Amino acid sequence: MIRRVKGTRDILPPDSLLWQKVEAIANEIFSGFGYDEIRLPALEPTELFVRSVGEGTDIVAKEMYTFEDRKGRSLTLRPEGTASVARAFIENGLGQRPQPVRLSYIGPMWRYERMQRGRYRQFAQIGIEILGAYSPTADVEVLLALHTFLAALGFDDLVIALNNLGDPEDRVRFITELKNELAVHKDELCGDCQRRWDTNPLRILDCKVARCGELVAETSPITAFVSEDAKQHVDRVTESLETLGITVERNPRLVRGLDYYLRTVFEIISPELGKNTVICGGGRYDRLISDLGGKAVPGIGFAIGEDRLIDVLPQSFKESVLDRKIVAILPLGDTAVAAGLGLARVLIHRGFKCRTEVTGRSLKAGLKWAQKNKASVVIILGEQEMQQGEAIVRDLERGQQESVKLENLNARISEIMTGTETV
Ligand code: ATP
Ligand code: MG
């Protein structure tokens, strides 16, 4: 047997219906806020991520699927979406369009990670980006769009954690001070943090090892190094969000895994999954486009981990998607087969979900099949009844059965399925 690649998943029905619905709602809400979809390639030049995500990050240092194509070019399966959006912005001259430019994306990402719940080697992200706006209002809009989307899925217990990373200059001063304060304890840091000390010291703040966390808790927070400008920016973001009724938790230790973020950074945490399994991460990246060779165009956005999001969807949302009633159609005999499929065609136009029996089961076996398919109603097209212009409709939920004239069938099915009948 050939097995799927480690860390990848098959998403089977009915779970795939949840994915489709979540994506449909994402498209509806984000498009409503003006963020229309950009479809990006899964393959990018490796250099794109080295230069944007950053060499010292976990992603670039150890998580990328990088290989040479047949002509010896180094390609990478994209580990995230923002770098590709930035590349596409520059390459397609989106700076010429009315600013700011709003974009959304949905699709698979690849990272070579240790598999565990909520951590896969192929996973999907849903993200939006707004490019060309320095104003804190853009940050507010992005967070409002995120909040609106999550609320539409029925979430009411998610926490938005937010921090101010200041500008890159502020961060240089912060990192110097962080290292000063941690220097005496350097030996007590974990192996990963010893490495981060030189390559990406900011990530020490994000270490999940308990002792590292204790040491970090004793250091001065990054917010103490943030310029007045950056401070006002992020304060205005949180104030506007409060006005909109959206609570954010300020977390002065929050950093993100990518080098390009500055000022506003945020995460969505699910109480169910806990602090170490973040559902969504985002932030502002005003230097990214210029770092990649474009003009100075600011940006802000987020990426939701769709696998993790689906894992914690509210029960009521799942039920609303998965409990769709089914009409089973059971044609008995050759002449009824085409009539059965024709009936399915009419009913799906009316918005019903149908299953037609296509293997030639008998009445008895067919009724069992309908029950196994959890059908609400089964329409039995027997040869004799069809000759009389009738079909038998059996309501499996109420255990009732009746003969219905073919010309009345649609109306009757509608009544039964929507529960508007008056018996
Ligand atoms: P983590 O700290 O969990 O490794 P991250 O900081 O690497 O996350 P981001 O690069 O910010 O994650 O990606 C945004 C979101 O994508 C994450 O919040 C998460 O929901 C999701 N995500 C990231 N890596 C994975 C993965 N390997 N499997 C499933 N989802 C993932
Ligand atoms: Mg990660």
Order of strands across the widest beta sheet? 1-5-6-11-10-9-7-8
- Principal-axes geometry comes out as elongated
Radius of gyration: 28 Å
The termini sit apart by: 54 Å
Query: Approximately what portion of the residues adopt beta-strand conformation?
Result: 15-25%
Largest sheet: 8 strands, mixed
Parts with pLDDT < 50 across at least 5 consecutive residues: none
Total strands: 16
Give the rounded overall mean pLDDT: 94
Number of helices: 16
In terms of structural class, how would the helical and strand content be classed?
alpha+beta
Proportion in helices: 25-40%
Identify the bound ligands.
adenosine-5'-triphosphate, magnesium ion
What does this structure look like?
The chain is of the alpha+beta class. Strands 1-5-6-11-10-9-7-8 form an eight-stranded mixed sheet. Strands 13-12-14-15-16 form a five-stranded mixed sheet, sandwiched between helices. α5 runs parallel beside α9. Bound molecules: adenosine-5'-triphosphate and magnesium ion. Adenosine-5'-triphosphate (ATP) binds next to β6, β10, β11 and α11.
Provide a compact summary of the structure.
This protein has 423 residues and is of the alpha+beta class. It is 39% helix and 22% strand.
Primary descriptors:
single chain; 423 residues; alpha+beta; 39% helix; elongated; binds adenosine-5'-triphosphate
Topology:
Blueprint: H1 15-32, E1 36-37, E2 43-45, H2 46-52, H3 58-63, E3 65-68, E4 74-77, H4 82-91, E5 101-110, E6 122-131, H5 136-152, E7 159-164, H6 168-182, H7 191-199, H8 210-217, H9 228-243, E8 248-250, E9 262-269, E10 278-284, H10 288-291, E11 299-305, H11 306-311, H12 315-322, E12 326-331, H13 334-349, E13 353-356, H14 363-372, E14 377-381, H15 383-387, E15 390-395, E16 400-405, H16 409-418
Parallel strand pairs: 1-5, 7-8, 12-13, 12-14
Antiparallel strand pairs: 2-4, 3-4, 5-6, 6-11, 7-9, 9-10, 10-11, 14-15, 15-16
Helix pairs in contact: 1-5, 5-9
The protein binds adenosine-5'-triphosphate and magnesium ion.
